[in-house]
């Protein structure tokens, strides 16, 4: 028979315009007829000035053409960039539309975060001793969240996680699967079919169940551990929960909800947290599908 735990079980271009060439030569050259050589020189100067002016006009014309071409190129590049960006946006939109809708992950919501196996403890651990014998300290990530029920002398008792803020009027819901055909029996003098109950534990519980501590742990109605998938949802209302000795207490329950340290579920039968074990050689796996406070 598995060991029992007694009463202690939870980024334009710049064009510099050529400067204007000097104007006509000084009028003093026309006061007296110049020598023939001087006339030739003046003619050459006029020809030179005309050529220079033509050159300047050509430079200015070309500079204007370059500016215009640059502006057109700039506009063309801008249009090309816009078109390219539009193509990228369209492709991204089409790709997103072809993908399945995003499934909430662990970081998306409190209900998803609570499904991390490492957040849960298989226990209870009291005075350094874990009363869930032959069990790991946390569930496995196999199948998302799971563990195997142990065979004697092992047993699994409480599976808990830190409680989020709770208020009267909410509800706690669990969906789980039992996979495997082996029988699950409760740890007690007369073996009975294993049952699961939702569980709330108040901060500061000393595990004795004596005096005020009898209202530090509360359980919901039970649900049978039969092969397949089942769901249990229980409102956080005093009428649906009982304390250590199976009694309802409105004030004690409301205080436990307001000061909850742990929530989860436990296994047993008439003794709600005294544990269960499997009788078959074949493995029987418990798979948590969802656990939520709503």
What can you see in these coordinates?
There is one protein chain. The protein has 294 residues and is an alpha+beta fold. It has two domains: 72 residues; 184 residues, Jelly Rolls, CATH 2.60.120.260. Helix content is 26%, strand content 23%. The strands form four sheets. Strands 1, 5, 8, 9, 10 and 12 form a six-stranded antiparallel beta sheet that branches. A four-stranded antiparallel beta sheet has the order 4-14-6-11. Strand 2 and strand 3 form a beta hairpin. It is globular. About 22% of the residues have low confidence.
Short description:
By secondary structure, the protein is an alpha+beta fold. Helices cover 26% and strands 23% of the residues.
- Identify the CATH homologous superfamily of the largest domain: Galactose-binding domain-like
The averaged pLDDT comes out at 77
Oligomeric description of these chains: single chain
**In CATH's first tier, which class of the largest domain applies?**
Mainly Beta
Largest sheet: 6 strands, antiparallel
Secondary structure class reads alpha+beta
Q: Work out the count of structural domains.
A: 2
Give the count of helical stretches. 3
Instruction: Please give the radius of gyration in angstroms.
Output: 44 Å
Shape: globular
Topology:
Blueprint: H1 36-98, H2 110-113, E1 121-123, E2 125-126, E3 129-130, E4 146-148, E5 158-162, E6 171-179, E7 184-186, E8 195-202, E9 217-219, E10 223-224, E11 228-235, H3 250-258, E12 260-268, E13 276-278, E14 285-293
Antiparallel strand pairs: 1-5, 2-3, 4-14, 5-12, 6-11, 6-14, 7-13, 8-9, 8-10, 8-12
